[in-house]
Every structure is written in structure tokens, then in C-alpha cells.
User: Fold this.
Amino acid sequence: MKLQFDSVAELIAMGGHGIYVWAVYGVAAGLMIWMVCRPLRRRAHILAAVRAARRREGAR
Amino acid sequence: MARSGALWQRLHRWASPPGFYRLSTRWLPWLGAASLALLVLGAIWGLLYAPPDARQGHSYRIIYLHVPSAFLALAGYYVMAVAGAIHLIWRVKLADMVMSAAAPLGAALTFLALFSGALWGKPTWGTYWVWDARITSMLVLLFLYLGVMALRQAYSSRETAGRACAVLALVGTVNIPIIYKSVDWWYSLHQPATIRLTAAPSMHPDMFKPLLVMILAFYVFYAWVLVLNTRAEILSRERRAAWVGELAEERVS
Assistant:
């Protein structure tokens, strides 16, 4: 097994197909981060709302 | 009898939303660490170390995202349809929550399969898009996922929405064998399956091994995000339950 590129510039160029390859890897990374972060944000949101509601009820 | 009774009880606790929430807390770090490790390994192997293709050069490296995302787009549809069936038949609430978590994940993965296919098609076939059987049936899959998501918003009753989504998901399974068989039934630009259970892969082992790593990585990643999304859905639906209140207080300290 050997490294297929001699320089970072070659890696980015991907033999002239860099734009296609890197666009796909970039979009995939974005989508996968979204798939992980969306439920985590939603969870934090719900728990904060539940906490606030309990505070309001407790104050009354 | 006593043993099967205990098993039944355990299954019942497991399928209850708070039971699943508590149990799955322990799985999350393992699933997260395993999917990140496998994704990084597979991507570096595929991008840097796999040899270039004799005809396509480096553009074929898109395969390491294209094939796994297409695999999971289909597997995710099974998850959604089976969860829908379980909800319809046994009225298991957790199954409906899994179903509603699976729809946006499936839509994202189907989009990724189509997008990566389009950007691979340009340098390879000379076009981003053709109305060919494989590609069109994948587009139908995307619309089925989006349809299930939209249908859920269309009902004010959660129970009715869940049943309607389950029926749509089950009817949509007709599309799945069409996707699989499309490259054999119709003349297609899309190449036939690279990986078959009954024959050796039509790919050099040095290219094939990182692909296997990426497919495994996507399966583990899917399990991780499905659990994460199901947990968020559980909290959203049970936000008025006492156990969610306790959980919210725990998070403060």
C-alpha cells in the first residue's frame, strides 16, 4: 500500500477531477454533521424548555 | 413459562420510550467513536492510498461515498417501513418514533447518493443527469422519504399521522426491488452491481477493501444517528412526563 500523491497540490487537483471529488466529500461531511447535530440541538432545546416550565411552575 | 414471562417483561421495558432512552445512553459513546474511527480510516484509505482507476483516474474515489450512501438509503427505507408496520400492527409507540427519526436521515442519504452520482457522472459519462431507470427510481425514493416527512406535518393527530406515514412507507416498498433490479431490467448507463453475494467483486482488492470499510462505517454511523434522532423524538413527545422533568434537572447540575 503506498501513498498515491506526491504533494498536497496533486491531492487537491485529483488529476483534474478535484472539483468533483472534493465537492462530494464536502457535501457528505456537511450532511453527516447535520445528521449528528440536529438531534443534539433539538435535545438541548427541549430540556431547556422543560427546565424553564418547571421554574415558572415552581415560582407560582 | 416463567422465563418467557421475564423475557416478555424485559422486552416491554426496552420498547417503552423512557426504557429505550435510558438503555441507549450507554450505546452512544461506542457508536460515536466507532463510526468516527471507521469513517476517518475509510476516507483516508480511499482518498490517499487506493490506486487510481486505469480509465477514470482519481474521479472514481467518489465511489467511497456513493455506494455506502446508496446502500444506507435503501437499508434506511427498510428500517422506516418495518418500524411503520410494527406501529400499525402492535401499536408500539417507540416504533413510530423510530420511523419519524428515520425519514430525514433516509432523505439525506438518498440525496447524497444522487448528488455523488451526478458529480461522478459528469467526468465519467459526460453528463450530470440522465432519466435512466436506476437514477429515476432513486429520485422516487427521495420523494417517498420527503412524502413521509410532509405527511406527518399534515395531520393534527399524532396517532393518525403515524398510521398514515406507516401506510405510505409500506406502499413505497414496491420501489425497492425496482431500484435493485433496474440495472438488469432496463438498458442503463449505470453499471451493474459491483458487489454480489454470489460472485467475486468486479473490483481490484486494493480498491475494494477501503470500500468495505466505508460501507461498514456508514452502517455504524446510521445506527448512531438513528439512535440520536429517536432519542430527540422521544424527548419531544414525552416532554410533559415526570422522567423528562427529572432529566432536565439533572442536566443543570
